[in-house]
Amino acid sequence: MLTRVLIGLLGGLITGVSPCILPVLPVVFLAGGPGNESPPPPTMTGKESQAGPESTGGVIVEVPPEAPPGPRGRNRRPYAVVAGLVLSFSFFTLLGVTIISALGLPQDILRYIGLSLLVLIGLGLIFPPVERLLETPFARIPQRQVSKEGSAFVLGLGLGLLYVPCAGPVLAAITVAGARGEINTGIVALTLSFAVGTAIPLLVFALAGRRVAERVAAFRTRARKLRIAAGLLMIVLAFALAFDVTTTLQRALPNYTAAAQKQVEDNDAARQKLSGLYDDSNKDLARCEDGVKELRSCGAAPPLAGIVKWLNTPGGAPVDLASLRGKVVLIDFWTYSCINCQRSLPHIQAWDRAYRDKGLIVIGVHSPEFAFEKDAGNVADQARKLGVTYPVALDNDLDTWDNYRNRFWPAKYLIDAQGTVRYFTFGEGRYAQTENLIRDLLQQADPTVQLPPVTGQDNDELTTDRTPETYLSTSRIRGYTGTPELTKDKATTYAFPTGGVPLGRLSLEGTWTTGYEQFTAGPNARLAFTYRAKNANLVLSGEGTVTVLVDGKESKALQVHGAPTLYRLTDDDTARKAGLELRFTPGLQAFAFTFG
Fold first, then answer.
1. Distance between alpha carbon 50 and the CA centroid of its chain, in Å?
2. Which secondary-structure segment (H or E) carries 109?
3. DSSP for residue 503
């Protein structure tokens, strides 16, 4: 539980400084400024008055007594707006889909409620009676200050409904759990920690707004004009969000938090905690690594299951992967409000234009992150605006997402002409590498094909002379050295060679049961492998520990738990030759090495 909370908190902190939160920053900054400081209006008792200097029209006017001198109450608006955002985002991310489905409401109703609240808050800043109306639900709370900050809390509730942070594995895990109704203490803890993590940078920004408002004389002397300007800005932002204007700015900015997000949310520990999508129907996908620079065999492509509607196909007809044998297929998991996805679309569209007549079929699988993205009309409208003309499958229940063990928006999978997944990459980037592999698959499918020039390049760096993927299978292994020869499906004691293990070779020591699918460790099981690469990875399953030694020095101890999962053994900045030794708990199973 603690590990999951830490992953959520760190993932939230990174998201809180990403380009995706830019639309809400001006509102949060201004929300930290002073609230309505005007005194309460005179109260009319309704009693008949006696004629006198304090009477007005026969109704007594009770003028509130002047407050005694002293320090002003502390402005808690920054805390109120961020608290509302955390509460709203957490609740509706987990339960929004369930509530909407149960009540039969439109999928995008929460978005419209958020936009309406933002407009109301803007009107409240311009017209004080509207703000007092918004604070009415909090008026029964005895503390005057709580009532006073009510509109800021309502603003936070509205922002939580509009808050669309950059999608990574943490948010994907939360979204998938909420869509399925699989809510437990672990996923609630992950959601709250993620929301708190994203809130911390926003709170810092709101507190900065409060400090500026308190310290800068112009804010104090022109408070009324600034409140009106802030109200107008919120109304303009609401309309900008409604008409998707803000995404243009977001797409133009680089994803400067991508590397940090991947480091925190896509390491071995995070994958174990966040991904529970393993079953026998797609276990081979776990044997391949994200973004390797060569084609590999990752098993038969899972079907496109649970698709509720198809776009950009003749008559809305479904696309069956089995009918595409002989073609190379690129599957792109995306969702239209994801800025990362939008930034990758131009590359995919360029590949579709360049290679469609050469045997490439592009399929976009739209797996929604939020409830409003399930609306087929919304998806069709946004696909048209974004220039998506290839087939799009609406994976509203995330069935195909599960089939492919996906955990990222965007994610791209390459399928060869025989229907085998040969490559996948998560997130943005690796465009030149992916295009080169598309060209390789097209030439494998048709050696006579005449390909056009590449559409573009990026800064992908290739590792030359890298050790190739190595399966721990009696029928597929290459580079084994040691004594005796491998014995299939029988516990056997092995020994390392006396002269050491050469580059590109592996060896066993202790007791192992070697089979067609995997090697199973017995007593004193060890494995040695000399490789050249930046990083080494191994697919493992079972319960136990693998101690990793690099060049004779202990590097780390991996805790293995559950179904086959890819574990990172080493990770260097540059490619190098290294001697790897692994020591296994009996019963652990090892499937395949990959190198990056």
1. 70
2. helix 109-126
3. B
Name the residue among 164, 165, 154, 82 with its Cα closest to residue 113. 154
- Taking residues 459-475, report their average pLDDT: 67
Q: Do the Cβ atoms of 157 and 117 come closer than 8 Å?
A: yes
Give DSSP secondary structure letters for 301-324.
Answer: PPP--S--EEESSGGG----GGGG
DSSP designation for 429: -
Across 73-82, 444-453, 505-514, the highest mean pLDDT is recorded for 505-514
State mean pLDDT over 214-239. 69
Q: Burial, 130: exposed, middle or buried (Cβ in 10 Å; 0-12, 13-18, 19+)?
A: middle
Residues 369 and 333 sit within 8 Å (Cβ to Cβ): no
CA distance 401 to 282: 12
Give the pairing type, strands 392-394 and 360-366. Answer: parallel
Query: How far is Cα 323 from Cα 320, in angstroms, rounded to an integer?
Result: 5
Listed residue (297, 295, 294) closest to 286, CA to CA: 297
Amino acid found at 115: L
Nearest to 495 by CA among 481, 510, 506: 510
Nearest to 297, CA basis, from 287, 307, 310: 287
- pLDDT of residue 364 exceeding 60, the answer is yes
> Between the CA of residue 346 and those of 256, 338, 365, 384, 415, what are the distances in Å?
19, 14, 16, 13, 20
Report the distance separating Cα 482 and Cα 501, nearest Å.
9
Higher-pLDDT residue of 304 and 206 is 304
Any residues with CB less than 8 A from the CB of 553 and at least 6 apart, and which? none
Amino acid letter at 530?
Answer: T
**Where are the alpha helices (H) located in 446-563, listed in sequence order?**
none
Strand, coil or helix: what is 496?
coil
